[in-house]
Amino acid sequence: MSHSARIHLGLALLIALSVLFLFSMVHTAAGAPRSGPRAVADGHRLAQAWCQTCHAVEPGMAGWFDDAPSFQAIADRSGTTALSLKVFWRTSHQNMPNLVISPEQADVLSAYILSLRGR
């Protein structure tokens, strides 16, 4: 194989690997919500920091206000799914401050809430 052919083959391989890498990065960023133990732990920390003022974020914990449902109650609702929570995070609510959270933060908060189901 000539030197020129090896260079062209190497460049083609480099381009192909770069495209695959970029595709995997885009797919991961826009793909399925984060889940697993780390997402649950991160969601728990966010819930304690942002939501605990009004909601009971721990199982069996009482909330500050009767109007704010506990995270356990939210998790145990039959209509609570990852998708319903994703929609919830994107809409304004009358009795809740308008939080601006990133998609990743929404994913980990949802993962934490869903982890409470049936406890």
Summarize this structure as a short list of keywords or feature phrases:
heme binding, elongated, 119 residues, iron, metal-binding, heme, Cytochrome c, Cytochrome Bc1 Complex, Chain D, domain 2, mainly alpha
Describe this structure in words.
The chain is mainly alpha-helical and 119 residues long. It has two domains: 1-29; 35-114, Cytochrome Bc1 Complex, Chain D, domain 2. Helices cover 59% and strands 0% of the residues. It contains five helices and no strands. It has helices spanning 3-30, 37-51, 71-76, 82-89, 103-115. α2 crosses α5 and α4 packs across α5 (103-115). The radius of gyration is 22 Å and the shape is elongated. The model is unreliable at 21-30 (pLDDT under 50).
Quickly describe the structure:
The protein is mainly α. It has five helices and no strands. Keywords: Heme, Iron, Metal-binding.
CATH topology term of the largest domain: Cytochrome Bc1 Complex, Chain D, domain 2
Helix proportion range? 55-70%
Task: Characterize the biggest β-sheet.
Answer: none
What is the CATH domain class of the largest domain? Answer: Mainly Alpha
Oligomer: single chain
* Beta strands, count: 0
H/E element sequence: HHHHH
SSE layout and pairings?
Layout: H1 3-30, H2 37-51, H3 71-76, H4 82-89, H5 103-115
Helix pairs in contact: 2-5, 4-5
